[in-house]
Amino acid sequence: MPNWGGGAKCGACEKTVYHAEEIQCNGRSFHKTCFLCMACRKALDSTTVAAHESEIYCKTCYGRKYGPKGIGFGQGAGCLSTDTGDHLGLNLQQGSPKPARPSTPTNASKFAKKVADVDKCPRCGKSVYAAEKIMGGGKPWHKTCFRCAICGKSLESTNVTDKDGELYCKVCYAKNFGPKGIGFGGLTQVEKKE
Length: 194
Description:
Radius of gyration: 32 Å
Distance between the termini: 112 Å
Largest sheet: 2 strands, antiparallel
Strand order of the largest sheet: 1-2
CATH superfamily of the domain at 22-66: Cysteine Rich Protein
Strand content: 15-25%
Structural class: alpha+beta
Number of strands: 10
Mean pLDDT: 75
């Protein structure tokens, strides 16, 4: 039967959806106000919607209804999800139980390896991530910790020197560790004669 009198019909309320108020999902049209999770009624958008056949859900409710169940499939690593979604009116499909995963993995996951491989800042001892890493003296430093150990001056690749795992500006390094004598380290001939 032809669709007389306007646009497509809303997938939720079956009323006409005009172009200005239309959101499309899975080949169906919805009013912006009708584009809600079928379980919890949360407003959806293109980044939060999960469609299953003719039904739309937020990703959380979709996971509760259609996602994997059992040990290791909860909200965090290694937990048991006991949330059945009953308080949201979800009728979970009951099938044969899935085999439980072993409680201790035989191989460490990629995430666990990445966490273990994070470098530590020699100055503060905290983790240094790629976005905040500056290399100096062959070690990773936070941008805020990349300072002279004596005067506290912020360092750059052009004025940094290192000694025994600590960073110094060139001036402090020369005064404290450089050669001593006339013409070096701030001594003058007048000081030498006295």
